[in-house]
Amino acid sequence: MNKLKVYKELTYFSKLHIMFNLRQLIFISFILILLAGCDFKSAEDYLNEAEKFENKGQYQKAITLLDKAIEKDPEYLGAYINRGADKSALGKYQEAINDYKEVIKLDSENTLALFNIANNYKRLEDYLTAIQYYNKALDTKGGGLLYIDYMQNDFVDLDAFDVLGHEILYERGLAYYELDSIQLSANDMYTCIQKNYMVKESHYMIGACYFKAGQMVQACKEFEISASMGDRDAQNIIKTNCKKLENE
Question: What is the CA radius of gyration of the chain?
Fold first, then answer.
């Protein structure tokens, strides 16, 4: 009788022990589920992961990660800049502009965002608006005539969002050309040559400006300079247009 009683007490105790273990397992499982749902990655982590896909040309996958970066930190300028660049690479120019404008809301003097907005308006063939944003980008550097480019050194830490003034001028010159503002286009290209930036391309564009103005002698001189530097478009124009001029 006593043995039976003891046996029953041990069985009851074992059931309690098993129930306690089950509760522990359920609790631990619940915690693990919660932890699995938590995102411990930072916005910068997502940016770095996105960069790996960008290097492979997998822009849509990069955009997905940059979406998460922005969810983590809605004021992360780098994520907006990179996502805009990825969208532009996919031909989604207006969406890219929207991302860059988010940067401007947070940092109205962001040269790179203004420059990229202009580039995308140019791709949309809205050249007038593009020029307005190129001008705004130059204004952040002191203006189109007296812009300042700082050189990297121990005392000056170049901003990651900076753009060299002559880079802006070259792209603005292309937009001016499309609007038939050939003198303004040529002026920007001459400045690029002085800065030793896109020299053969700038000579070609100056030649194109003269060509559009009907000044073939000056045009061919510029094309010849560009061609001598290896520009194939200039070489082809010389064959089809400038050679005829020599024979006349």
Answer: 31
Q: What is the dihedral of CA 150, 156, 162, 167, to 10 degrees?
A: 30
pLDDT in tens, 153-173: 443 344 688 999 999 999 999
DSSP H helices in 162-215:
165-178, 182-194, 199-212
Q: Which fold has domain 43-107?
A: 1.25.40
- Tell me the whole-structure pTM to 2 decimals: 0.80
State both tokens at 55: 């290097």
Is 168:176 a contact under the CB 8 Å cutoff? no
Contact between residue 71 and residue 83 where contact means Cβ atoms under 8 Å apart: no
| Residue 64 φ then ψ, to 5° | -60, -40
Fold (topology level) of 109-197: 1.25.40
Q: Are 147 and 141 in contact (CB under 8 A)?
A: yes
Annotated domain spans of the chain: 43-107, 109-197, 211-248
Measured between alpha carbons, how far is 138 from 157 in angstroms, rounded to an integer? Answer: 19
Give the 3-state secondary structure of residue 192: helix
